[in-house]
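Anyone have tokens for HD domain-containing protein? Sequence:
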Amino acid sequence: MDETLESQVQFLIEIDKLKTIERRTRIIHGERLENDAEHSWHLAMMAFILHGHANKEIDMLKVIKMLLVHDLVEIDAGDTFAYDTQGNTDKHERELKAANRLFGMLPEDQAEELLSLWMEFETKETPEARFASSMDRLQPIIHNHQNEGDTWQKYNITSDQVLNRNAEIANGSATLWKYTQQIVQDSVDQGILKQSGS
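Reply: yep, here.
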């Protein structure tokens, strides 16, 4: 078999492991936890549907590529819970090591492209990365609201924690940040998210 094709197929086989990485958030229409592959697909669909709310003109193909790539590193590094302050201290180092291993399986040009997309998502310095990050932060909020605060309640998360952790949604979409704030307030009003200080 052609060496390039063989390395590409081996990479595709390796990233199938993304389907085994569980997140802390339940799927909306069921009792089980979402996996990283489902999460990435859902974010790509969200970006496709919601891109009209981006603060700036964005390259949609680049955003979708970024969203499909952004969590591949969790195959090695695991899913770090958003509100885990300890786990987040070395998250970037663990994920960078994973990125180098995983993307290094590909031919050099593709390895460089995927690493570049992953780094761009991480640094959030472009309109595409900021919008992609907005999708990544908004999706679990929608899930928790639909799941009666499942993860929020399980980990004793407060409304201030949700708002502080996800304020950067505004960097990608002011409209979706307002929507997020409304979801959080509705969740507090419905008693599914604890009001900070209460």
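The mean pLDDT is 96.
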